[in-house]
Amino acid sequence: MIQFLFDFLEIGASTAAAITNGERAKAVIAEALTGFKAVRTAANKDFKLLESQILFNKMVSNRALKLAAIYDKLNQDVTSYPWERARSELGGYFIAGTLDDALNSLSISTGSEANDSVKELEDVKKRAGVLLAPTEAEIAASRANADAIDALADAFANADATVADSDGKIAKANNRITVAEKTIADENAKQNPDASKIAQANQDKTSAETEKTQAVAAKDTATKARDTALGNLKGAYDAIAGDAALLPLLDQIPDLDPGYSADFKAHLKESLKRLKEKKATADDYALIMLQVGKAVRLNLAKDPTLNKRLQTILKVNK
Amino acid sequence: MADLTANIDGGLTLSQTQARCIVEQDGGFQLQTIKFGTITAQGKVLEVNKAEFVSKPIGRLKLLSFVEATNDPKKVKGPKGKGRIYVDM
Known about the structure:
The complex is a heterodimer of chains A (about 325) and B (about 90). Chain A is built from ten helices and no strands. Chain A is mostly helical and about 325 residues long. Chain A folds into two domains: about 130 residues; about 180 residues, no CATH class. Chain B has one domain.
């Protein structure tokens, strides 16, 4: 970076000197250029000296370690510390003082320190509850389980929306029927009823009754679909609660994540209570089953069989 | 008020952060806001993206699309509605 900066300044100054008019300006730029070159030379010299000093220190340190090891064995007898071994260690002592060995050991020690620092930082992040990137396996398990549970919940929600829509249509049709009947009654009460108004009202009433019949039929179909969807949600939940390996996960749900708010924890506990009392809504079933999916994902590395069990249950109950 | 607050590693890439938020949403949540900040743990300052989620087990939008910040918001924002919402950053 420093070399690039010096290159940039020197090229800029020499170009400016070439294109600038006026002797005084050229002289100033030329002086500045000489200054940049002098600074570069000084910087290079200092950095090279620093590099040499680091390598020299490493050589001294490596040789000191080897020598200490040799001195430790000087009092041993010839059987445990024979001449062959001493000669080999003397060779090692010589190599420890070479430039190659200094570079090699520097590379090993700095690489190891970098790895240790990265690992330590990751451990701190994990202990602090900082979430790292999900693994491919986590993403796949999370997606598959959520999709299956969402399909059950969406079937309920769609049917429920159709029931609500049909109720709206029935209410609207009833209103039109009431208005038409009132119009007919009002006209018939008159001395000279308006036949065309009565005919129009009768037509409106018939049209509204047809719409009402259609809406009632749609509501009946949607109500059955909603009951089936709720039954499927209930069936899937009951299968989870009936699985010896998955059942303990239900109790862990309120404390599954340290990031849950106090209100949300209370909400989860209420949902679990309603499920046990068989008073649960579709929202309760979906919420708790999605939480089971999350618990399975969090346990994926520790126990991948939980994921297989949940996926089997969701396939059977889809 | 968020139901779930997740501190996501600030060193993750945009797509890794997006994947992490989608995985968190799979627990029955909808991402509400995500903001950059720092937390302190064991004497170390950690950069995090603080993501806040609300509970929505039924009818939530399931996918997320994170894009690089730009000076022209119109380039980022598509048409509203049709299953799209924008998340506060």
